[in-house]
Amino acid sequence: MNTPEFVILTINATIIVIAYFFVYPRFCGANTHRIAVNDLIASGVAVAVAGSKFWGSGTEFSLLFLSVNWFWFSLLTYLVIEIPLMLWYARKHNIWTFFDPH
């Protein structure tokens, strides 16, 4: 089960779990600026790791009905995996009050 898609999904899921369950609670809390900076770093690491494995390989990835390269597959699947955890983390740490104008 070491398809290229599975490898990138595993890389993305591992980085997201580490970020949302270890790094963000310890170093960011509810600070949206710190979360944004750390999330940019985490997503960059995910793309860099995928790129180190698949850059120049010509491997095509199946993304629903599309065939994409490693970069787009890594980036888009990272976002899809991250969004539910981001919403959970924001609710848990009451981050939405930061955006409330009242």
Report on this model:
The protein is mainly alpha-helical and 102 residues long. The protein has one domain. It has a two-stranded antiparallel ribbon with strand order 1-2. A hairpin with a 2-residue loop joins strand 1 and strand 2. The N and C termini lie far apart (51 Å). The relative contact order is 0.16.
* Cα end-to-end separation: 51 Å
Pick out the low-confidence regions.
none
Number of strands: 2
The secondary-structure element order is HHEEH
Q: Rg, please?
A: 15 Å
Strand pairing plus helix content: what structural class?
mainly alpha
Number of domains: 1
- Shape from CA axes? elongated
Largest sheet: 2 strands, antiparallel
Q: Tell me roughly what share of residues is in helical segments.
A: 55-70%
- What average pLDDT do the residues reach? 91
List the helices and strands and how they pair.
Layout: H1 4-27, H2 32-54, E1 61-63, E2 66-68, H3 70-92
Antiparallel strand pairs: 1-2
Give me some keywords for this one:
two-stranded antiparallel sheet; 102 residues; 69% helix; mainly alpha; 3 helices
Give a quick summary of the entry:
This protein has 102 residues and is mainly alpha-helical. 69% of the residues lie in helices and 6% in strands.
